Task: structure prediction
Amino acid sequence: MKSRQASKRLKNGLFLVFFSVVSLAYLMPIGIVVINSFKRKAYINKYPFSLPTGRDFVGLENYRAGVEAIGFFEAFGWSLFITVGSVSLILLCTSMCAWYISRVKNRWTRAFYYLCVFSMVVPFQMVMYTLSKTADSLGLGNPLGITVVYLGFGAGLAVFLFAGFMRSVPLEIEEAAMIDGCSPPQTFFLIVLPILKPTMVSVGILETMWIWNDYLLPTLVLDQKKYKTIPMAIQYLKGGYGSIDWGLMMAMLVLAILPVILFYVSCQKYIIKGVAAGAVKG
Amino acid sequence: MEKTLKRWLPLFGLPTLAAFTVGFLVPFVMGMALSFCRFTTVSDARFVGLANYKSILGDGDFLHALWFTALFTLVSVVLINLLAFSVALPLTKGLRGTNLFRTVFFMPNLIGGIVLGYIWQLIFNGVLAMFGRTLTYSPVYGFWGLVILMCWQQVGYMMIIYIAGLQSIPGELYEAARIDGANPRQILFRITLPLSMPAITICTFLTLTNSFKLFDQNLALTAGQPSNKTQMLALNIYDTFYSRAGWEGVGQAKAVVFFVLVAGLALIQLYITRRREVQQ
Amino acid sequence: MASIRFDHVVKTYDNGVTVIPDLNLEIQDQEFVVLVGPSGCGKSTTLRMIAGLEEVSGGGLYIGEQKVNDLPPKDRNIAMVFQSYALYPHMSVYRNMAFALRLKKLPKGEIDRRVREVAAQLELEPYLKRKPRQLSGGQRQRVALGRAMVRDPQVFLLDEPLSNLDAKLRTEMRAQISTLHKRLSATFVYVTHDQTEAMTMGDRIVVMKDGRIQQVDTPQALYDRPKNRFVAGFIGSPQMNFWQTEVLRGPEGWRLRGAGLEFGMTGWQLEGYEGKNVTLGIRPEDIHAEEVMIKAHPDALVRGKVSLAERMGSEIYAYFASGGQKLIARAPARTGIRGGDEVVMALDLNKLHLFDADTGERIPRQG
Result:
């Protein structure tokens, strides 16, 4: 008995050590970027793994220059606006739509559901060109309009996930609400929506992760001279002929990662739960 | 119930339906149609039959990208799922530190493709500099660079799904197996793996489609260098459209082929793994 | 006025299946009517048509004098208690009960008064702040009841509300619901598959099968004079004994032969049945072990070895076979019948039921 206890503790100890090492290794790339963001440009390329010392240390110079060069804070603002706006729009519209097609079952609703599933497999390149032209002609090339584009392209996955979860909302509760005197919108907003909260979080997180980090869609749809999102701004640092000012790049990368990490650290439990729930339904 | 709800289609269904039509349906149908045309803008399209598709067959870059993408997908899917599953197993035992490790492993998934590509470009170039080489020295470097990047980003996400799948296996099955005299290896292969098939289905589907459709990371890490030899399909299509004029029709045709490939792969994979799922 | 009337009502589903072909039923104001029958007989569908949760495909449904076919549920002044209670999981007990009143925009003081009054009646006061998932099954059922009561409706619809409760609770709640009906001046329509519930609670019972009404009557009438074999077998526990008998014409009148017996029958309209079979039915409680009865019906004696004797406390259910026919008889506990005993019992020929062997319809007595 004693030896079993001992070997168990040994195994746990090994586990702890092994995973701690792997975790540190996992976080190293981030660490390296942070370190290099304080170095002078030339030294980054030559000695990327050394800590900044007297000569190379440039303080916040890279940050200041980078922010100016690509208008980082404006990009941050637009990313925030577009992400929050699009996700809100998606959550509201697709949940309503999913409820409708779950409760009204006819040829059309079933066809729409299958179209949604279908759209999840279509790669963006398929519609890339035509979508940008369509968005152009409808004047959607601004932060407000692009939320509609995101709703359109992201509806498939969202409707699919919501419709899947809708099956576990008992119909009898909605019937009770109708007998109690609710009109359909009241039934949806007062009764169904509160029950859907966990799914809202799951879908919301998935959509947020997609939209915040998306590069191609905003690049093609937005009027680039006026609006940039963070991924676009980062890519903008790559000048002509592929040359990059690595000092600025490092600093901007840190700034780009920072909000993500802060968001993650604060909502980490919900994010992980949401990801697991969303995937299982899929 | 249905009758009262039917009248509310405008409020509930229309916004999503309208956006979906504008944002997906119309572009999709247009894309299909334009793949058979030569055009520079939508209005001057001229029907050319299968000419675009034929020219794909002679496009060396495209064929190389196809091969590269297929290989990359194969390697990534296998590696990521193996790693994610192996990492998930010990993390379901509830040992000390589990939550922390889960948090750390998942974190890279939140970082966007472009940012990720540049981070790893720095690291790879830094490492390779010690041997006097750069990332764009050979496509092999680019290939493995992308694989490592992909693993770093995806393992945490798939791990979460595997953990959820493993935790849904009733503990009683393991107890019954131990009483029946099974050793850990047998338990793994005869109980754990078969009952994890639903999670394996989802993870395989996600890694398959994510790897095949990869764009952002490809653009940032290597931008296809050297000489488009690390260019994956998505990037190749993008280049065809936007790096020079006159090839839009071919680009659209390539996109259709791309779509068919992705859809086909996904369907085949789902069919194979779904059949092996065990109903609880 | 909350009478309910079904006038040639038809219910057909979208796939073309007609589950209720022609329903005609009148429920009086403030009556307690029970719809009972096996699964799939259409009782729940009928109830849901009254609620407005199912569309009426044909015919007219009237509540009071008003035709309500197209009236949405919330305008029908009805309340419903669901089998699964259907409580709003994200709301407290109080808010569950107050919900409908808030929708009607009643003043807050009025809402509070009504909710607390009903909560007191149902002993729910300690739980007003709790959420449904923190309550037991019985408590949830009372909340569902309270939610309906608070609205003071004309019509109470109850869809198998006691099915999910354990036996003891079921008996308690049965009494509570009956008492409630007497206190409120509302029409109660109650659906159940349990014939004991039906018999004990209803003013009148509607027995349904395959979407058709088999019989509508008071409990006692259903028990004494079932209109067909199905109703006869459905009502009464243990089930009525049935066997086929051949109709013979004897010198003194009709004779029935079957199950190893033959005896004379007077007072039955058996014209046209000569030489044919009719189904004979007799309830277990009408098969007697007492000496008195055996002497009174000497040619209606059944005898056999008891294969199983279920002791119910005040009675014994004896299972035996006589003349090849399996029978169940209810005997008083003092007879002390045990498994393996040889018994002789008499059929009370005054309590026979005869049914047409093909249609199952009751064959009437003469006079």
